[in-house]
Protein: DUF6671 domain-containing protein
Organism: Stenomitos frigidus ULC18
Amino acid sequence: MTHTFFANRVGVLATMHRKEKVIAPILEQALGIKLQLPENFNTDRFGTFTRDRDRPGDQRSTARLKAENALELTGESLAIASEGSFGPHPGFPMIACNCELVVLVDRVHNLEIFGQEISIETNYSHTTVRSVEEAQIFAQTIGFPEHGLVVMPHASTKNPNEIVKGIVSEAQLLTVVTEALRRSPTIHLETDMRALYNPTRMNVIAKATTNLVNAIQSTCPNCAYPGFEPVEYQPGLPCALCHFPTDLTRVAIHHCQHCGFRQEKLFPDGIEAADPAQCPYCNP
Ligand SMILES: [Zn+2]
Ligand SMILES: [Zn+2]
């Protein structure tokens, strides 16, 4: 399959950490573009998960910034970038979640289209340990060694020389933890969230990329431009029992970046009535 807007164009992939392994095949097949990695492109200067470099803005603007930077660097007109975040789930703060964004920026058609995936499939975790045994127990719970580990003196450590990333073998873990415990009675361990050290995250990036393809294939009914996506959700889904409006989404408003056309879509989540458990009247 190809897309008339993108077929045979070069797309610059503004990513590191081998994310191209999952992003490139999906986009090349769906859009007919040829993806290239810019030389000497270092996305770590846009922030790292290990806090040695803070992120400059929110997730969307960071993804956009990476894409724009790659366009300036290469002089191309089409770029793809991605950005991930980890933290408490917006709806269920006790559960960790991974939010991945993949953005396509097209200077020819003046378009910016996002694909997003929010997943509770993540090993995002950290702990404090005082022995090699405790470190090994933590390693088992996070899917080590297929998933990498990071070791540092404290959770607040910012000095890159004190942070050991990308630990992926039992022997390496033993050496690094033993050495770190020699200098401090307790040390901080956390999951390495960089994509190439985290196959679970790689899967979420693949899903976000597929969602980007779906967003591109959603076209404006008025001008046929791609990226006819929801920009606003309105609550008011009626309760199945008493028909009282709930906080759940009733309408999604789609908007075209090109011609400004707006369209309301009823019941975007595929349900026409809310569970009475979610109703402020039936279940106050
Ligand atoms: Zn339009
Ligand atoms: Zn009700």
